[in-house]
Design brief:
This protein is α/β, with parallel strands linked by helices and 229 residues long. It is 38% helix and 21% strand.
Length: 229
């Protein structure tokens, strides 16, 4: 039996934790509230995310789903960027697209937190698509659609709101999101300033800190000048 490579060994540190995810999720949500002054998900809503994290930990041993290599990093990845959208997407929002969804962060988490919103997860890689479809079925996410596609294959104005995490440079994503979304585009940032685009204005600008790593994070929600919420 040969030695596992460094990356293989790192992936083994992720494992299903069951209900042990919940204290980590609660701590992360508490930090979000402290940073933003906004309400976060209640414990019942957070408990729905634990089975998703178990599935990510299990699949990551054989499929490249995430760069997170410990429980804290996985909670940060799957929860924190979903919270601004969960907080600010209006009650009349019916469709959101997550482009380059990868392992489902943050789109699949958003679907769990806001089950009335139809969330389309767009991902070109077959193994990740298989994970997303299997997880959506096993988690009873009837509001999730998974498409194996690239962003340029999506029709214009096909969704009300669009988001993408770490797939495009911010200014590039704002342009592409503006093409496929009829109303708003969400851009996630680390330290950079938000991009600008004619015809769009910033509606929401939320700064927060990842609760375990301490890294700064920013979610900026753009809306068309002629759109209403």
């Amino acid at each position: 039996m040969g030695w596992a490579g460094v990356d293989d060994f790192a992936a083994m540190t992720l494992r299903p934790l069951g209900e042990a995810w919940i204290p980590l999720l609660l701590r992360a949500a508490d930090r979000w509230r402290a940073d933003t002054g906004l309400d976060g998900p209640d414990p019942d809503s957070l408990s729905k995310i634990a089975p998703l994290l178990d599935r990510v930990a299990t699949w990551t041993a054989r499929v490249d789903l995430t760069a997170a290599r410990d429980a804290e990093s996985l909670v940060e990845l799957y929860l924190l960027d979903a919270l601004p959208l969960s907080a600010f997407l209006s009650p009349d929002t019916t469709s959101v697209v997550d482009v380059g969804s990868g392992g489902g962060a943050p789109g699949l988490t958003l679907a769990l937190l806001r089950p009335a919103i139809h969330v389309t997860l767009v991902e070109p890689r077959a193994k990740r698509v298989a994970f997303l479809r299997t997880s959506a079925t096993e988690l009873d996410c009837a509001n999730v659609e998974v498409r194996r596609a690239r962003s340029e294959e999506l029709p214009p104005n096909a969704y009300q709101d669009a988001m993408s995490r770490a797939t495009f440079a911010p200014e590039q994503w704002l342009g592409e999101g503006a093409r496929i979304a009829s109303r708003g585009v969400w851009v996630f940032l680390a330290a950079a300033e938000p991009p600008e685009r004619p015809g769009f204005r910033v509606e929401h600008d939320v700064e927060y800190v990842l609760p375990f790593s301490g890294a700064p994070r920013r979610a900026v929600g753009f809306i068309r000048d002629d759109a209403t919420r």
